[in-house]
Amino acid sequence: MSLLEIKNLSVRFQTAGGLFTAVDKVSLNINEGDVVSIVGESGSGKSVSMLALMGLLPWTAKVTADVLNFDGRNLLSISDKERRDIIGKEISMIFQEPMTSLNPCFTVGFQIKEALKTHLNMSRKERQERAEDLLNLVGIPEPRKRLRAFPHQMSGGMNQRVMIAMAISCNPRLLIADEPTTALDVTIQAQILELLLKLQE
Fold it and tell me: What CATH number does residue 100 fall under?
C-alpha cells in the first residue's frame, strides 16, 4: 500500500468570473522512503496541490479527487480532529518563505515547542531538550541561545533551518518541501538540499 495515493485531484476556486481551475486531475503515488519532485512552471498548481493535501486552502477552493489517501485513510472524509492529528505530525510541510511562515511575535523556540506540545504531549523539559536537539540536527550553532531569538534576529538561511526543524519535530512520515530554497543564496541552497537528503536517509 502506498503511503500517499492521489488520483485525479482537482482544485477549483470560486471567483467573481466563475470557477477557475488551478489543478486539473493530478495523480501521484508515493511509497515510504521515496523522494519525489514535482516540476512545473510558476503558477502551474504545484503549491496548490500540496496545500490541498494539507487542507490549508481558503474556503473559496473546491477540492475533488477520486482518491486522496494517506496510509489508507481518506483525507477528504476524515473528521477535523483526525486531520489535526495527521497534519503536522504524520504529514509536515516546509514553506517557501520562512519570514512569512514564522510568527514574528514569538521566539523560534516557542514556535518549535508549540508543535511538540500539540502533537507529542511532552513535558516542558522534554520540549526544551527536543528543540535544542532539532536545532543541532539542522546545523544551527548555539541552539539554546537561538531558541530565545525572534525570526527577525536570524538570517534567511537560519530561519529556513528553523522551518525544517519545526517540520521534522514530530518525525513525520511524509515531508513536503515547497521550494524551500527560493529566497536563499546559492551556497545556502546547496546546504539546505544536502540537509533534506540527509534527513530522508
Answer: 3.40.50.300
The answer to the question of residue 26 being in a domain is yes
Structural domain range at position 111: 88-200
3-class SS letters over the chain: CCCEEEEEEEEEEEECCEEEEEEEEEEEEECCCCCCCCCCCCCCCHHHHHHHHHCCCCCCEEEECCEEEECCEECCCCCHHHHHHHECCCEEEECCCHHHHCCCCCCHHHHHHHHHHHHHCCCHHHHHHHHHHHHHHCCCCCHHHHCCCCHHHCCHHHHHHHHHHHHHCCCCCEEEECCCCCCCCHHHHHHHHHHHHHHHC
pTM of the model: 0.83
**Same structural domain for residues 99 and 185?**
yes
What is the pLDDT at residue 188? 75
Residue at 83 is within a domain = no
Cα(first)–Cα(last) distance of the chain, in Å? Answer: 21
Question: For 22-49, what is each residue's pLDDT tens digit?
Answer: 999 999 999 988 888 888 888 888 999 9
pLDDT tens, position by position, 179-197: 877 767 787 778 778 877 8
* 7 DSSP β-pair partners: 67
Q: How many domains does the chain have?
A: 2
User: Do 170 and 122 belong to one domain?
Assistant: yes
